[in-house]
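Section: Multi-chain targets

For targets with more than one molecule, the full set of components is provided together so that the structure can be written out for the assembly as a whole rather than chain by chain. Components appear in the order listed by the source. The example entry contains four components.
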Amino acid sequence: MKITSRFTVAVHTLLAIYVLGKEYKMTSDFIASSVNVNPVVIRRTLSSLKAAGIIDVKAGSGGAKPLKDAGDITLYDIYAAVDCVDGNLFNFHENPNPKCPVGKNIHAALDSHLADAQAALEKELKGVTLADLIERLNILM
Amino acid sequence: MKITSRFTVAVHTLLAIYVLGKEYKMTSDFIASSVNVNPVVIRRTLSSLKAAGIIDVKAGSGGAKPLKDAGDITLYDIYAAVDCVDGNLFNFHENPNPKCPVGKNIHAALDSHLADAQAALEKELKGVTLADLIERLNILM
DNA sequence: ATAGTTGTAATCATTCCGATTACAACTATA
DNA sequence: TATAGTTGTAATCGGAATGATTACAACTAT
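Its structure, encoded as tokens over all components, is:
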């Protein structure tokens, strides 16, 4: 079980917009050919990023544009924007038997630890900005 | 996108075995009624836990038994035993365009950060043992 | 022998994903 | 204002993963 590629697609999309946006018009078709997915997938990604206030996209004229400074966008912001994880990362089996001492209390015993693990992952994502990635890209390019 | 309930089912299963195992014969049917899933699901879980050397199960006679000390079993061990995540937690879009400067380098720029995030989650899981959960259960029960 | 189990294969329905088609709505510009 | 190029979005499709369930062979204790 893996976290949707929507996330890495969104990161890729933003990198493209921030790095190549001055030189090219960033249409969904253009971005789609860099990411190598269907343009509609990019349009959906752009919608999410727009709803999160990260970029601006105008219907008709086209071309996505940055709204925030790259240093102010973390991987977590992107992860949250495309909603790869709806609430809890870990799936719990529904309806453990309340007549069993284990079934009755397993949520109380386990939930906080799972939340901690998820928080640790998300904290790590909060520590990386789009600017960090762009810097690294510029070295590599 | 969530991590399979196989994981929490396995934790529940082990808790049942370690907490109730002295009092009851822990058959797949018994455990299934505590977890509230189909017995076959539990048998599969037991198989994984057995393969990981955590418990012993004998075909025919039945009844799962602990092989390791609860303090030596971490949530990570269970998570790994039932293989909820096959390798990388994050899905990457395949085939980014190598002709695009972003597409060509995005893996190099992003992979390590994703690995770090996954490692942070797993480290957290390594910090909790079955004994911790049992202790908490005993207080609640 | 028998009853009770485990191990495992095979199906099935459901859910989620990304791909794709289609088309209405919108905007810049000629 | 007509047109070309875009975005927004609904609808559908096939594929993959999941858990539920049925079925039955293999095994073990009594």
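The first helix of chain B runs from residue 6 to 20.
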